Structures are given as C-alpha cells and as structure tokens.
Amino acid sequence: MQSQMIFRLHTKIVKLVDLAEASIISVLTTCYAPCWNVYFTECRQDTKPYQSSRMYAPERSEANLFVTYLNTALRTIKTIRVTAALCSMKAVIPAAGQGTRLYPQTHTKPKAMVRIAGKPILGHILSRLSETRIDEVVIVVGGSMQNQIVEYAEGSFGNEFTFRFVEQENAEGLGHSIYQTEAVVRGEPALIVLGDMLFENGYGTFLDAHDSLDDPDASIGVKTVDEPRHYGVAELGDGTRIERLVEKPDDPQSNYAISGVYIVENTDLLFDSLGHLVENDIRGAGDEYQLTDALQRMIEDDARIDIFEVEDWYDCGRPGTLLEANRVLLAKGDNDEADTLANAVVVPPVDFGDDVTVEESIVGPNVSVDSGSSITDSIVRNSIVGEDATLESVNLEGSIIGDGATVRSEANQLNVGDNSTIEL
Q: What is the pLDDT confidence band of residue 100, given thresholds at 50, 70 and 90?
C-alpha cells in the first residue's frame, strides 16, 4: 500500500511540473535579467560570451550562475518526466456489453451501472483503482445508454482520474472492444479490467505481483479451478511463463483459469495482434474477436507472458453471482444505516442509501437498499433493492429489485426491472 501511495504522490507531483517549468524560467529570467540580456546579445553576435571583452567579470559570473540554475532546473524536470513515463500505466475497462444475462436490470442501464453494495459495479472498480498508481482510465462504451457511464465516472471520480471514453459501435467480442482503444493506449503499459468482474484482492496487489515477474511483455491473473473446461485456460512452460492459451478446452491440460485481469507492457505487439485478427476476420469463440486469441498470437511471436495468481473473483454478469458479490462486499464494507427505522430489525451486514425508510420490517442479512426506497411490513434477506423502490408486505430472499419498482403482497424470489409494479 505504501508503494501505491508513493506512485499516487509521484503522479500528482508530475502534474505540477508543467506549471513549475514556466515559473522557474520566469523567476530566473527576472532575477538575472541583466546577465540574460548580455548573454544572449553575445550569442546573437556569434561570439563567446564568457571571453568577450565587452562583458565585465561580474556580468560573466552572473550569466554563468543563471545558465547553471536554468540547466539544472530543466534537467530535473526532464528526469521527473522520464521517471513518470516509466511508472505510469493506464487502465482499460471494456464496458460496452449489453448485459443480456442481467435482464431485466440492463433494459434501463448498462451492465457496469447495475448497483451492488451501495454503488454501481463500475464504482467498485474505480474505487479500487484509485488506490493504485493508475491515473488515467480508458472506458469502452457503447449503445444508447453509454452517457450513464460517462456521467457517473466523471461526476464521481473526475478528481481521481483523467478519463477517455471510446465508443464500440458493434459488440464483436472482448478483443474487438480492446482494439477500439488503440489510438489512446498503443505504446503505453495498460491494465485491462473487465467491466463486470470484481476481485477479493485489490488491483494494487496484482500490479505488485506483475512488477515482481521477470520483465514480461504481459501477465495474466489466473486461479486454480476444479472445472477448467468452463474457462479460458493458461498452459505453462517454465516457471510462470505461459506456453499456450486455450479458450474453454474440451480436454484441458491445465487448471489455471483466466480470471479477467491483464497487465500488458508491450501494447504495440498487442494491438498488432488484435489488428491481425480483425483485419483478417479471424474470429474465435462465439464468432467474436477474442482477446485470448490475440495474446496467443503474441506468444507465437515470442512474447513472454506470465501468470500471477488471484483469489476469488465474481462475475457480476449473472444474477446469482451478482448477489454473491453483494454479500462479500457488504461483509467487508463500512455500511450506512437507514434514515428512518420504525419498529424495524436490521440484521447486518446491510447498507442503506440516503432517505431510506424501514417500518415494521426485518431487513438483512446481506441486503443493500438504495436511496429513496421504502420497506414496510416486510422481510428482506440476501437481496438488492434499487433506488426509489417500494416494498410492502413481502417476503423476499435472493431477489433483485430495480429502480422505481413497486412490489406488494406475498413474494419469495424476484428479479424485477426498473419502474415495474408487481402486486401478488
């Protein structure tokens, strides 16, 4: 954590360098204006100023001091900039997918904007990125609801990151999504984080693990699993070096499942590989352009790609795993209380947004309730309740209730979209 704080401080210092450079030159010029004029007068006359008979000794001394200070300042600025270039890294978040597995929630919002444990999935990702050396985030957006992502990111994290938004007009796979960012990412190291994946570990842990490897062109987070045929799989050669990547193999030769976090140093080669796939219409699983195939092509071009291990991750693209991620995040979080509790019992962990009213009800455990919602005469467990939702006389468990939805009378398990009304 200390190293990540240093990186963040270093980044903030670098942002001041541009302002400092102009100020340094201005101050030195003002303080040494006489020798500045003499020095450059001699230079324009193509003479050696320090040997000129027309420059008195005090002026030569002042000119020499001025030049020394100026060169030292500019060299320092250059060093900071070079060091910053070596330390900096961009994050790329592909978030243009339709999220069909989360219907009806994603009928009215992008998948990355589905809320769990008090904030959108994207909010959890950006919060964790803010603890690392990442200071620029490139988000791939698409579809008619992309402005929700833009407005949320800039409004909630505009002071933490510089954002670049790249549109993917047609959803043609993860590889195609990353390929859209070439103009703003090529030539710079990149951390690729899927927009619907959350990890138990922070991204700083992954960056530290990558930094400890033997100078790879890229590294991939993996986890040992019992059923690797359901995942992309990394087959190893020597040590941590990947020999082959296979997407959902029928006969897996490894149980290292690709988790959905990638750190790429050699982005030139990555975009060359992605370009080869797209330009030659080489599609992989699902008839889409796959990032795994591009990474495999990098390996075939003698790139070194290593693994680092991750702990549990949660694919928030399905209702079941979304609720599981909600449970884990609530257990680890600092949760807020409801504004109004009347004859109500709260079984932690529970997170309430602003202006939430709970009356004659039992809420929890593992429930997140967004702002403006009301729960009356109900029992709610292991569920996610959206903004401005109304629950009356219901018994809910393992349910997802959308923004502005109303559910009345008896119920057990529901997945209700935004602005819906259900009376049972």
A: confident
For residues 113 and 120, the answer to whether their CB atoms sit within 8 Å is yes
Q: Which of 177-186, 207-216, 314-323, 334-343 has the highest mean pLDDT?
A: 177-186
Given a cut of 80, whether residue 32 has pLDDT beyond it is: no
Check if the beta carbon of residue 74 is closer than 8 Å to that of residue 157. no
Say which residues have a Cβ less than 8 Å from residue 171's Cβ, sequence separation at least 6.
96, 97, 98, 142, 177
Say if residues 297 and 245 touch (Cβ distance below 8 Å).
no
Q: Can you tell me the distance from the alpha carbon of 173 to that of 234, in angstroms, rounded to the nearest whole number?
A: 19
Residue for token pair 């990558």: 210
Cα Rg of the chain (Å, integer): 28
Distance (Å, whole) CA 118 – CA 332 = 12
CA distance 309 to 423: 47
What CA–CA distance (Å, rounded) separates 230 from 107?
27
Q: In 3-state terms, what secondary structure has residue 357? A: strand
pLDDT score, position 236 = 92
Range 334-423: architecture per CATH: 3 Solenoid (2.160)
Q: How far apart are CA 28 and CA 18, in angstroms?
A: 16
**Mean pLDDT, residues 119-125 taken together:** 93
CA distance 28 to 276: 52
Q: For residue 409, what are the contacts with CB-CB under 8 A and spacing of at least 6?
A: 392, 393, 394, 423, 424
Give DSSP secondary structure letters for 245-313: EEES-SS-S--EEEEEEEEES-HHHHHHHHHHHHHTT---GGGS--HHHHHHHHHHTT--EEEEE---E
Q: What is the pLDDT of residue 69?
A: 63
Distance CA 140, CA 143 (A): 11
Predicted confidence (pLDDT) at residue 228 exceeds the cutoff of 90: no
- What backbone torsions phi and psi does residue 106 show, to the nearest 5 degrees? -90, 10
Contact (Cβ atoms closer than 8 angstroms) between residue 359 and residue 91 = no
pTM above 0.90, yes or no: no
Residue of higher predicted confidence among 414 and 362 = 362
Q: How many residues does the chain have?
A: 424
Domain 88-321 has CATH 3.30.1300.10: no
Q: Output the CA–CA distances (angstroms, integers) from residue 232 to 58, 222, 291, 333, in the order listed.
A: 73, 10, 11, 31
Amino acid 104: pLDDT: 82
pLDDT of 4 higher than 50: no
The span from the CA of 235 to the CA of 279, in Å, is 27
3-state SS assignment for residue 356: coil
